[in-house]
Design a protein that fits this description.
By secondary structure, the chain is of the alpha+beta class. It contains eleven helices and 19 strands. 36% of the residues lie in helices and 24% in strands. The strands form six sheets. Strands 4, 5, 6, 7, 8, 11 and 12 form a seven-stranded mixed beta sheet that branches. It has a three-stranded antiparallel beta sheet with strand order 1-2-3, with no helix packed on it. Strand 6 and strand 7 form a beta hairpin. It starts with 13 loop residues before the first strand and ends with a strand.
């Protein structure tokens, strides 16, 4: 599903919900006043953008009074280095309607002038960078959507504030889905594996196009959305930017490893794909007394690498060939994005079948029931 980039004034299915303009509560920043939040009537996505021109933190951030008036926090979902993630609801016409996720950062320092206006948010660089990055990536169908962001001054402390980042709520993470699948003894078909690989790499490809390095790629940061049948990359709290193609390559390799583990339920090295590539080259080098560079050009290298990886892809030989051939091609053609190359190959040569929701299971007397 392609989500619109808003001007919300003239989009069918959206309504502008006026928020409180009392910018004396929660912040003294006059830029946070007179904003609106748009809510999608089909409850699939919302956006805090009052216009399509809100492309950075300063124009996107809202007063905390707007948060308090319109958002209800229900329970904690997770906790990380940068903050805590909660499940909540966006209130519309006085009732709880839209399910959302809210990431609340830890207390962040700020510097103010004598009039009490914030003049330096450099201490909040990680949070500001994360929000700016989510705004840049809002066109992507495989990166979690940012809805709104709110600044909250800490009561009694005029030099600290929190930021609440409101995002769309996922159904389950790739990590938890894998565990449910293990509990249910449900296998991943070749078509499911192709789909998972394509979806996960799509988010990485969109990051790579903007030279954004997601420095925390793991199964818990890929979120699954049902019934949209999408997998989206989240949590950009440790991001960085780069000029070299190497970072895009490393993100792709890491993601491939995660999907291989997801398909196989294995618990080997997190860099399992890179491990297979390097050990195969070493084996061929020793077997034929070749240098590593010579080994990767030996015909047995590609055959052996594909066979090893296919075993961990539940005999999906075609996907294994796509991964190995694409990896070799991209090392020889440095300007080619590995994620983009694999996605193109899957779309051209393979059949994809979306994963379906799994119910949680309970164990009673040794039996597993749904």
């Amino acid at each position: 599903m392609a989500y619109p980039v808003l001007n919300t004034q003239n989009i069918s299915g959206y309504q502008n919900l006026p928020l409180s303009n009392n910018n004396n509560q929660g912040t003294n920043n006059p830029q946070l006043a007179n904003k609106t939040v748009a809510i999608n009537e089909d409850l699939q996505i919302t956006s805090g953008l009052a216009s399509s021109n809100n492309n950075d933190y300063s124009s996107f951030i809202q007063s905390y009074s707007n948060f308090a008036d319109n958002i209800t926090i229900k329970k904690q979902l997770g906790k990380g280095i940068q903050g805590i993630v909660f499940k909540g609801y966006f209130k519309y016409n006085g009732s709880a309607k839209q399910k959302i996720a809210v990431k609340t950062t830890k207390n962040t320092k700020s510097i103010k002038d004598l009039a009490g206006q914030q003049i330096d948010r450099s201490y909040a660089k990680d949070t500001i960078d994360e929000i700016n990055t989510l705004l840049k990536l809002r066109h992507s169908e495989n990166v979690v959507k940012i809805i709104s962001a709110f600044e909250e001054e800490i009561a009694g402390n005029f030099f600290k504030f929190k930021v609440h980042i409101v995002m769309e709520l996922a159904s389950i993470s790739l990590k938890d889905y894998r565990q449910l699948r293990v509990d249910r003894k449900t296998n991943i078909s070749k078509e499911n594996g192709n789909y998972a690989m394509k979806e996960c790499l799509s988010g990485v490809r969109d990051c790579d196009k903007l030279k954004i390095h997601h420095d925390d790629i793991h199964a818990g940061n890929f979120l699954m959305f049902f019934p949209q049948q999408k997998i989206k990359l989240c949590d950009f709290g440790l991001l960085s930017t780069y000029n070299s193609q190497q970072s895009g390559y490393s993100m792709s390799v890491r993601t491939i490893s995660i999907v291989i583990q997801f398909i196989n339920d294995c618990s080997l090295s997190n860099e399992i794909f890179e491990f297979f590539i390097s050990t195969t080259k070493t084996n061929i080098s020793r077997k034929y007394n070749l240098s590593l560079q010579e080994a990767e050009n030996h015909p047995d290298y590609l055959i052996e690498a594909k066979e090893k990886i296919a075993e961990f892809l539940n005999a999906n030989q075609q996907l294994a060939e796509t991964l190995v051939d694409s990896e070799k091609y991209c090392r020889e053609n440095k300007d080619t994005c590995l994620a983009d190359k694999i996605i193109s190959e899957i779309e051209e040569k393979s059949t994809c079948k979306p994963l379906t929701p799994l119910k949680k299971v309970k164990k009673h007397g040794g039996c597993v029931v749904s």
